[in-house]
């Protein structure tokens, strides 16, 4: 399948989702310029793309001025810490990339006349009082809670994107991504699935927060990427939810990881984080109707692929100390205007 885009800029392209997006765009015939400062991503995620004639990596911080020479017809703005462990450790960086980073990415899209897609999040719904969460729900976010650095940065980014659309005529879209899992997640990023897999493979008890009855709805990375690109290809402004509509308690997710990984294991309960959402499930009616999109990969299949990838990465490594995100010796690419 080819896209209508000749050259895309992907901010945060060396991250988990960004690297899969770069790969998929190249596969569909679109040239890719990946901008990343490797704050939470790693060059290792896209090292296999170096050498592709239509791929270029530029190490830069998008909260600084962003300049890209030549034509660009799509800007996918994914740069942002995304896991709670990362954004709690990097609160100011997270707010800056959601605000200044989004401003610069929107400026670039406007200057180039490119379509702009903001990677927003289900976290804009906060601890929701409406279930499942449809796009018309405004959310229930604590603006001074610890998670606000991420939630409010994304809410601001949505507002800024909308303002550019309405006042500058920029061709924008907002995708609200729900929990996604798959290869290239960091075992130490603190999100439930990579944590459970790392613990299962290390023979440690799986740490379930609270009593494990809080729910999550997860989506395999290939499905999420297909959804983001379907929105990019459309003329829809969004916001559109992209996520798995099958909801399950976190305790059941842990049990499924143990079952699919085939290792005997146990569970230990730890305290639930402050403002942790009780429930999470996307209403994907809009994505179905507007984009003809719905997830295709079943949980067990997605988990099997993810566990196989983790095994291949952790093979021979001391799982307890393994850090795939450590700064690889890597030459800085010539920063472009930053
Ligand atoms: P990630 O941490 O793996 O990737 C984010 C990337 O952005 C990293 O490579 C990081 O180095 C880069 N980055 C951060 N600040 C930057 C800056 N100032 N300049 C340049 N690059 C910068 O996270 P992810 O899971 O791939 O998430 C990607 C995007 O999707 C984020 O915007 C996130 O909010 C959104 N999202 C992800 C999920 C999910 O389940 N993975 C869910 C909802 C929303």
Description:
With 338 residues, the chain is of the alpha/beta class. The protein has a domain at 7-181 and 221-244 and 276-296 and 328-334: Rossmann fold, CATH 3.40.50.720. The chain is built from 9 helices and 13 strands. It has helices at 16-27, 84-89, 91-112, 148-168, 192-201, 221-233, 250-261, 285-291, 299-314; strands at 7-11, 31-36, 55-59, 74-77, 115-121, 172-177, 180-181, 206-209, 215-217, 219-220, 240-242, 247-249, 267-270. A 7-stranded parallel sheet has the order 3-2-1-4-5-6-11, sandwiched between helices. Helix 1 (16-27) links the parallel strand 1 (7-11) and strand 2 (31-36). The longest helix has 22 residues, at 91-112. The chain is globular, with a radius of gyration of 19 Å. The structure holds nicotinamide-adenine-dinucleotide. Residues 11-12, 14-18, 35-41, 61-63, 78-82, 86, 97, 101, 119, 121, 177, 179-180 line the site of nicotinamide-adenine-dinucleotide (NAD).
User: How large is the radius of gyration?
Assistant: 19 Å
- Count the helices. How many? 9
DSSP summary, beta strand count:
13
CATH class of one domain: Alpha Beta
What is the residue-averaged pLDDT? 90
Query: Biggest sheet, open or closed, and with what strands and sense?
Result: 7 strands, parallel
Secondary structural class: alpha/beta
> What's the architecture of one domain in CATH terms?
3-Layer(aba) Sandwich
What is the H-and-E element order?
EHEEEHHEHEEHEEEHEEHEHH
Bound molecules: nicotinamide-adenine-dinucleotide
C-alpha termini separation = 34 Å
């Amino acid at each position: 399948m080819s896209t209508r885009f000749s050259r895309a800029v992907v901010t945060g392209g060396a991250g988990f989702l960004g690297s899969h997006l770069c790969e998929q765009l190249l596969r569909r015939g679109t040239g890719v310029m990946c901008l990343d400062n490797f704050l939470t991503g790693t060059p290792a995620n896209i090292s296999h793309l170096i050498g592709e004639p239509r791929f270029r990596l530029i190490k830069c911080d998008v909260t600084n001025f962003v300049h890209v020479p030549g034509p660009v017809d799509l800007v996918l703005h994914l740069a942002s810490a995304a896991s709670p462990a990362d954004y709690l450790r990097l609160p100011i960086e997270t707010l800056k990339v959601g605000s200044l980073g989004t401003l610069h990415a929107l400026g670039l899209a406007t200057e180039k006349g490119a379509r702009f897609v903001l990677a927003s999040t289900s976290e804009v719904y906060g601890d929701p009082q409406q279930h499942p969460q449809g796009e018309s729900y405004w959310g229930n976010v604590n603006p001074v809670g610890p998670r606000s650095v991420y939630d409010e940065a994304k809410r601001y980014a949505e507002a800024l994107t909308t303002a550019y659309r309405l006042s500058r005529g920029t061709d924008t879209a907002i995708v609200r991504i729900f929990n996604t899992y798959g290869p290239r997640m960091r075992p130490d990023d603190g999100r439930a699935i990579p944590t459970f897999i790392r613990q299962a493979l290390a023979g440690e008890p799986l740490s379930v927060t609270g009593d494990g009855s809080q729910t999550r709805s997860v989506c395999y990375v290939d499905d999420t990427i297909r959804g983001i690109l379907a929105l990019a290809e459309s003329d829809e402004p969004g916001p559109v939810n992209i996520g798995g509509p099958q909801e399950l308690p976190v305790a059941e997710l842990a049990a499924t990881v143990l079952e699919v990984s085939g290792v005997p294991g146990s569970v230990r309960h730890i305290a639930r984080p402050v403002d942790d959402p009780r429930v999470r499930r996307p209403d994907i009616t809009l994505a179905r109707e507007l984009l003809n999109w719905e997830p295709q990969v079943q949980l067990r299949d997605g988990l099997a692929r993810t566990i196989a990838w983790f095994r291949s990465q952790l093979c021979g490594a001391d799982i307890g100390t393994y850090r795939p995100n450590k700064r690889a010796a890597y030459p800085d690419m010539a920063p472009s205007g930053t």
